[in-house]
Specification:
CATH superfamily of the largest domain in chain A: ACT domain
Number of domains of chain A: 2
Number of strands of chain A: 9
CATH topology of the largest domain in chain B: Rossmann fold
Structural class of chain B: alpha/beta
Number of domains of chain B: 3
Number of strands of chain B: 20
Distance between the termini of chain A: 28 Å
CATH class of the largest domain in chain B: Alpha Beta
Largest interface: A-B, 20 and 19 residues
CATH class of the largest domain in chain A: Alpha Beta
Shape of chain A: elongated
Helix content of chain A: 25-40%
Number of helices of chain A: 4
Largest sheet of chain A: 5 strands, antiparallel
Structural class of chain A: alpha+beta
Largest sheet of chain B: 6 strands, parallel
Helix content of chain B: 25-40%
Oligomer: heterodimer
Strand order of the largest sheet of chain B: 3-2-4-5-7-6
Radius of gyration of chain A: 19 Å
Chain lengths: 164, 571
């Protein structure tokens, strides 16, 4: 099963490598990982996506909790939640027809064109991961120059919250 | 941190020494070098903290482990940057696997040079990260005292373990007002102490409902200082008990209820009782693969209670029915109270049948060996050692066949007397561990049981033993093979003894004498007792007893890797 685990940890050098090191040392996989400081600068929030059986996920959360830099964590997939990922795609555009097609696609997917040059458009898109995958599929007819994805982040719906 | 003590401006090196004094860490093991020279100078200028100079940093860590395992106090190590730190890594990993409370201080190049590939620079925090409970790099002298306080706090609480504090050289020269926090709170680290009362009640109900119960206890009992409570509970229930390799001494080995060690080289009765148990009570043990054998075949009939201070140890390898997270001693005390307060009692009829079955297994006499051999049998040496030391010595073991035989034949009635490398299985552990143990217990008999292969991995520490006049008794079981490797090659590789033969061995008698000690070579079974007696009489000398033993002897019983606990190879 796919799980999204959100972690509040001390915003200290080395904290991220403790988390990453734990996954490699114990043979767990990380599908994506994203991290940034929170509104409290002493804390970072890290979101990671992993897959495993219930037993493996239980071990992962226990081992993460054991790390001295981890303050608190929440398995978002155990709660109603929203997940989002951001993507920027650079597409090569040759002529007016192609340009118009990219604009249409971007509108359908509710994205934005955030850079325009003589030969390329950069499209910004936010959504859950399957939506971003679908966009990539939809623009296969164009030359995709670059794709940048942020990795998944998430937040629980309603009153459930990961905070101190 | 709260209420700070008086403030004086000191150098980082002086702050370091003062912190150790405040912690009551009056004994440290180490080896100097460039990055820690300020600290060694500060140590020189005081006399409260005593420093033991080893001959190799690995020895310093093992010695501190011996100190910690035999006293229950944290071991403290000080080494320099680069090779000092990397040499210490084996010991650190060893302490991590066996949950030994330790604080290891490593020197580091000055902060301005970090990342520049400076002389004797290594990323100590990075290298040690996977084998420490936690580690710190001190980047500012004002954080030094608090970091040291945190290091001792983390190392000694919850499931204990080694903590590394990496200190750049410039931090030890910088000055700051010294104040040592009396207590420390870390928002991200709050180990559980007491078990959940509801879970304890559920556990007691299950325990008392058992028809074929089994207590399986590990190193957590020793680390958690819970041998007394464990003994009380076990006697109250009259249930059979087995100890893991790390848990030996947690329950008196001479007691009728004790079935010996379990696992790969455990006794027939312990492994059979595990296999047939209907309720398993696991206390401070972690279901290690050397204990469980094939996990699919492990305790097929048992419902399991598991008490452990580390939540991650619970249901890691084996799914348990009643988990209790908490320190072993308070949980055991709560269980005893709960049992005494309630009306339910163990099913005496079922228990009588169970004991009868166990006694039948016992009658197999699985540890028997040929007592008429003209060659010295290693088991005979250890039995004799046990008898002559009245089972009351501190025994520090290396790793291999001799370690298993010691676990089988030297029955420990008290905790903290059996000191070995269980988790990591580090050859070379024994002698330095004996050094740390003897320093902590100057008037006790400390024995290092070793083999001719293991001893050579840290033999340089014979020099340390001379420097500090440590009268360790080294019992070397010399079979001219890496015995455990040879045994596996005999059993599983059709006798192809690849690289397990110890050719070109030194003359250990001369070697011991060259280091300033007493050497003995014992070749006849009839001389074993006299030699040990003679050695034990030499109260002020290290005696190296080189026992020339039967080369073909194997450790039995044996649960081969991948087999179930009830599938033992017996002699």
């Amino acid at each position: 099963m796919r799980h999204i685990i959100s972690i509040l940890m001390e915003n200290e050098s080395g904290a991220l490598s403790r988390v990453a090191g734990l996954f490699s040392a114990r043979g767990y996989n990380i599908e994506s990982l994203t991290v940034a400081p929170t509104e409290d600068p002493t804390l970072s929030r890290l979101t990671l996506v992993t897959r495993g059986s219930d037993e493996v996920i239980e071990q992962i959360t226990k081992q993460l909790n054991k790390l001295v830099d981890v303050v608190k964590l929440l398995d978002l997939t155990e709660h109603r939640h929203i997940e989002r990922e951001m993507m920027m795609v650079k597409l090569k555009v040759q002529d007016g027809e192609q340009r118009a097609e990219v604009v249409r696609m971007t509108e359908i997917f509710r994205g934005h064109i955030i850079d325009v040059s003589a030969t390329a458009y950069v499209v910004e898109l936010t959504g859950d991961s399957p939506k971003l995958d679908a966009f990539i599929d939809a623009v296969r007819g164009f030359e995709v120059v670059e794709v940048v994805r942020s990795g998944v982040m998430g937040i629980a719906r309603g009153d459930v919250a990961l905070r101190l | 941190m709260q209420q700070e003590t008086k403030t004086v401006e000191l150098t980082g090196a002086e702050i370091f020494v003062r912190c150790l004094q405040e912690e009551g860490a009056d004994l440290i093991f180490g080896y100097p070098g460039g990055s820690v020279l300020h600290i060694y100078d500060a140590l020189y200028r005081q006399d409260k903290v005593k420093h033991i100079l080893v001959r190799h940093e690995q020895g310093a860590v093992h010695a501190a482990e011996g100190f910690a395992k035999s006293t229950g106090k944290p071991g403290v190590v000080l080494v320099t940057s680069g090779p000092g730190a990397t040499n210490a890594v084996t010991g650190i990993a060893d302490a991590y696997m066996d949950s030994v409370p330790m604080v290891i201080f490593t020197g580091q190049v000055p902060t301005s040079l970090i990342g520049n590939d400076a002389f004797q620079e290594v990323d100590t925090v990075g290298i040690t990260r996977p084998c420490v409970k936690h580690n710190f790099l001190v980047k500012d002298v004002k954080d030094l005292a608090t970091t040291i306080k945190k290091a001792f706090y983390v190392a000694t609480t919850g499931r204990p373990g080694p903590v590394v504090v990496d200190i750049p050289k410039d931090i030890t020269a910088a000055r700051f007002e010294f104040s040592y926090p009396k207590t420390i709170k870390m928002r991200s680290y709050n180990p559980t102490v007491k078990g959940h009362p509801g879970q304890i009640r559920k556990a007691v109900d299950l325990i008392l409902s058992a028809k074929q119960p089994m207590l399986y206890t590990g190193g957590g009992v020793i680390l958690g200082n819970a041998a007394k409570s464990l003994t009380e509970l076990t006697r109250l229930l009259n249930y059979p008990i087995t100890n893991t390799l790390m848990g030996l001494g947690g329950y008196p080995a001479s007691d009728r209820q004790f079935l010996g060690m379990l696992g790969m080289h455990g006794t027939y009765e312990a492994n059979m009782a595990m296999h047939h148990a209907d309720v398993l009570i696991a206390i401070g043990a972690r279901f290690d693969d050397r204990v469980t054998g094939n996990i699919e075949k492990f305790c097929p009939h048992a419902r399991i209670v598991h008490v452990d201070v580390d939540p991650a140890s619970i249901s890691k390898n084996v799914k348990v029915d009643v988990p209790i997270v908490g320190q072993v001693d308070p949980v055991l005390k709560a269980m005893i109270k709960e049992i005494k307060a309630g009306e339910a009692r163990p099913d005496q009829e079922a228990l009588a049948k169970w004991w009868k079955q166990i006694d039948e297994w016992r009658a197999m006499d699985c540890l028997k060996y040929d007592k008429t051999s003209e060659l010295i049998k290693p088991q005979h040496v250890l039995e004799t050692l046990w008898r002559l030391t009245k089972g009351d010595a501190f025994v520090c073991s290396d790793v291999g066949q001799h370690q298993m035989w010691t676990a089988q034949f030297y029955g420990f009635d008290k905790p903290n007397r059996w000191i070995n490398s269980g988790g990591l299985g580090t050859m070379g552990f024994g002698l330095p561990a004996a050094i740390g143990t003897q320093i902590a217990h100057p008037d006790e008999t400390v024995v290092c049981v070793t083999g001719e292969a293991s001893i050579q991995m840290c033999i340089q520490e014979l020099s340390t033993a001379l420097q500090y006049h440590l009268p360790i008794k080294v019992v070397a079981l010399n079979n001219r093979y890496m015995g455990m490797v040879r045994q596996w090659q005999e059993f599983f590789y059709q006798g192809r003894y690849a690289m397990s033969y110890m050719d070109a061995l030194p003359d250990f008698v001369q070697l011991a004498e060259a280091y300033g000690h007493v050497g003995m070579r014992i070749e006849q079974p009839g001389d074993v007792e006299g030699a040990i007696q003679e050695a034990l009489k030499m109260k002020d000398r290290l005696v190296f007893m080189d026992f020339v033993t039967d080369q073909s002897e194997n450790v039995y019983p044996m649960v081969p890797a991948g087999a179930g606990q009830n599938e033992m190879i017996l002699l």
